[in-house]
Amino acid sequence: DAGVTQSPTHLIKTRGQQVTLRCSPISGHKSVSWYQQVLGQGPQFIFQYYEKEERGRGNFPDRFSARQFPNYSSELNVNALLLGDSALYLCASSSGQGAYNEQYFGPGTRLLVL
Amino acid sequence: GENVEQHPSTLSVQEGDSAVIKCTYSDSASNYFPWYKQELGKRPQLIIDIRSNVGEKKDQRIAVTLNKTAKHFSLHITETQPEDSAVYFCAAPLYSGAGSYQLTFGKGTKLSVIP
Description:
The structure holds 2 protein chains of 2 kinds.
Chain A: E1 5-7, E2 10-13, E3 19-24, E4 31-37, E5 44-50, E6 53-57, E7 64-68, E8 74-78, E9 87-94, E10 104-105, E11 109-113
Parallel strand pairs in A: 2-11
Antiparallel strand pairs in A: 1-3, 3-8, 4-5, 4-9, 5-6, 7-8, 9-10, 9-11
Chain B: E1 4-7, E2 10-14, E3 19-25, E4 32-38, E5 45-51, E6 56-59, E7 62-67, E8 72-77, E9 86-97, E10 100-105, E11 109-114
Parallel strand pairs in B: 2-11
Antiparallel strand pairs in B: 1-3, 3-8, 4-5, 4-9, 6-7, 7-8, 9-10, 9-11
């Protein structure tokens, strides 16, 4: 059974550009969460989606948005990129809603903003 | 604000010795506490978790203990091996408003096992 997959693996953008990151959850999982991991820090929660609805939002500006599709895959969009958005973006899937379910991480997308 | 604090930030042990990493959390309603291992350049992987209906859980050389009264939980690794070298993160669901909880991570502990 395939694990969580993410694309692309690496991305280089310049300030002010927009980026879209993609995630496919484990088969049968209906929840996808997005995290930002800055070098040397723990993952920081951005969004959770369950059954195609937003169920949680972390302390991130409105430049960050996400959505979940009928097949439970998800996209994270970041507009007007800043240098500080450079990080590893992790997607995690779980079978149920909320932070009390086991979450399985994808390999991440490493974003560099120049 | 709600947070999870993790100590120490770095830990070096001799191969075969034990390692202990401790975390405290602020939300008394939290009742699920996972631990993740992240090797360099790789994804965080769940290695063990505990729910608040038990005080301790073991899986081979790894154990987690929970003290809900004191709001802290710990990861114990016995008979450490070089392949245990990695960054370990604790996490807890903390209330984020509007009836939802978000999984909040500690800042991580870099464990180095010296052969």
